[in-house]
Amino acid sequence: MEIPFSKMQGTGNDFVLIDGRTIQAGWAELAPSICDRHFGVGADGLLVVEESGRAALQMRLFNADGSEAEMCGNGLRCVVKWALEQGGAVLRDGALAVETGAGVVSAVVTATAADQSVERVRLSMGAPRLEPEEIPVCADGPGPVMNLPIAVNGTELAVTCVSLGNPHAVHFVDGPLSAFALERLGPLVERHDRFPQRTNFEVVHVESPERLHLRVWERGAGPTLACGSGAAAGMVAARLHGLVGERVTVSLPGGDLDLSWDGEGSVSLEGPAERVFEGQWITDRTHDGHP
């Protein structure tokens, strides 16, 4: 059996996208092999488009380790681009509603190319969840959870915890992000006892009230070039600390994302989406990816 797929990326956060409305498979089992960068297609995650009773379609995201994530801003922009160009979806009142594990998200196309292909998408990510039980994080008292001390491998961190439908822990640093040991500390923060569902981990440097620099360790994927919900979490955390205003550009290794939040309502995230190539995945392969 061969499964058609699209390879997509948003600010370097890359995905294999499959139309699950016509194909059935064990997606959690497929994700590690198809996302393998040596023996598979190579991706940070597997996006599966399915039917929805609440929106135009449903997006499911399986991380490279096979775990399912609730939400992914970069992945969602890729799904919107694919759905409008190849998946038969149409805008209604100028927007496309997509069901995710974090609820229904509204997407608006903000830029198209000369051939009318989608170039940029703006998402309404919903209001950030700041109470400990909503994130979830083991912390005393009501939210927001700011400067929560955690120790990993002899390093003391102070994290601000936010959920955009998935958990995030944000740590601010004064120096360059390249000096932070993300690859060493990221997996330890992800699985720290304070996070019962594990967590995404962002390290942030504030350049100015209008610009943040951010690196991310994604739950179930490791270090990635970008994370949309992580950028949103970083912006929300910075605003809670009074470090930024309502509109911020977040610079990640894979590119820039534009975010806005009024401090109360939905977080808006805007960025690019790109189709890289199309292919066919042969299903009769061994677990390690060899045919």
Task: Describe what you observe in this structure.
The protein is globular. A hairpin with a 3-residue loop joins β10 (155-163) and β11. The protein starts with a strand and ends in a 9-residue tail after the last strand. The longest helix is centred in the N-terminal third of the chain and has 13 residues, at 73-85. It has helices at 27-34, 73-85, 182-190, 228-240, and strands at 2-10, 13-19, 45-50, 57-63, 68-69, 96-100, 103-112, 118-124, 145-152, 155-163, 167-172, 200-208, 211-218, 222-224, 247-252, 255-260, 268-272, 274-282. Helices cover 15% and strands 42% of the residues.
Provide tags for this entry.
18-stranded mixed beta sheet, 4 helices, disordered C terminus, 291 residues, mainly beta
